[in-house]
Amino acid sequence: MTQTLAAATEIAQRRLGTTRVRLPMLGFGAAPIGNLYTAVSDDEAMRAIGSALGEGIRYFDTAPYYGYGLSEARLGLGLKGVRRDSVRISTKVGRRIYEDTSREPGREGFAVAGRKAEFDYSRDGVMRSFESSLQRLGTDHVDILLLHDIGRLTHGDNHPAMLRQALDEALPAMAELKSSGACGAIGIGVNEEDIAVELMPLFPLDCVMLAGRYTLLEQHASRRIMQGAQARNIGVLVAGPYNSGLMSDARAPGSTYNYAPAEPEVLQRAQRIYAICAEHGVDVGAAALQFPLAHPAVVSVVAGMRSAEEAISASLRYRAEVPAELWQQLRAEGLLQDWARTLGGAAA
């Protein structure tokens, strides 16, 4: 039986570049239900997806790499019976998943044993990966297909060769899938800004998913991306708005930033942001979630969710009232870049 979702609490949508895809402004990041860092039970994952749907969240982002297929499989199960045209799904290509009984859980951050992931930007690799993703997701198409983790920080000295293969094989294969209707838009999903700036003039992308680079805590490295995206009508999807948790907890900041121990100056900056949010009675997570959405290049912000509670929290943060005075104070104290946009006003 197909489930029709109630419209009362739906998240507002924005058009993705020049495509026909209209994307909700808040998305469910499904890496955590792929057992990112710690295991999540099937029941917990289903409750997280169900709560997200109940909160009006209709965009779900996943990848084969997230739990070596576990995230996609759980997402497919959680959306089973939901009308396909009522939700948006993005997944990724660029890695192939293999069985490997020697692999212990916890490798590469995922608490999953018996599987491994290897980079593959070949045409055949893209097509095989995509077909496997469709099977796990239980669908015949996705709304967005992203090339995952291309870039020099990921590939080091192999970057030129990997980029050449991506341009010659992976991206053209993705364009074929778009032309066939198997996906509605194509782009890249990365953690580094340089590759996005490098690729935008080289291949017609619809979108860039950028993790942790245009956030309440960090904007300095993303100006070129935003300018290039606006100039080419490329939609920006902001993932990692909490910078791996430092900007999500209403308590004093922890010690991790972008999945690594935070430097003292980063903690000091975070603590000042916390203090200003507290002065205005605003949850720092709400400010962090809403900040990227003020930029005209940004189509959606994707926050990781591993539980029903986190899905409900993300929804509340998205809908929270954040006064213009908070953004003004952050800018006045040099905590926002001059060019960054804020809700209720343009850049200075």
How would you characterize the overall build of this protein?
Helices cover 36% and strands 19% of the residues. The mean pLDDT is 92. By secondary structure, the chain is an alpha/beta fold. The protein has one domain (23-332): TIM Barrel, CATH 3.20.20.100. It starts with 12 loop residues before the first strand and ends in a 16-residue tail after the last helix. The chain contains eleven helices and 14 strands.
How do you describe this structure in short?
By secondary structure, the protein is α/β, with parallel strands linked by helices. The chain is built from 11 helices and 14 strands.
Quickly list its features.
single chain, 348 residues, TIM Barrel, 19% strand, globular
Basic shape = globular
Biggest sheet details: 8 strands, parallel, barrel
Low-confidence stretches: none
Summarize the amount of helix as a percent range: 25-40%
Give the SSE order as H and E letters. Answer: EEEHEHEEEHEHHEHEHEEEHHEHH
Overall tally of domains: 1
| Average of per-residue pLDDT values | 92
Domain NADP-dependent oxidoreductase: 26-319
GO molecular function, one term: oxidoreductase activity
InterPro entries: AKR, NAD(P)_OxRdtase_dom_sf, NADP_OxRdtase_dom
Organism: Pseudoxanthomonas wuyuanensis
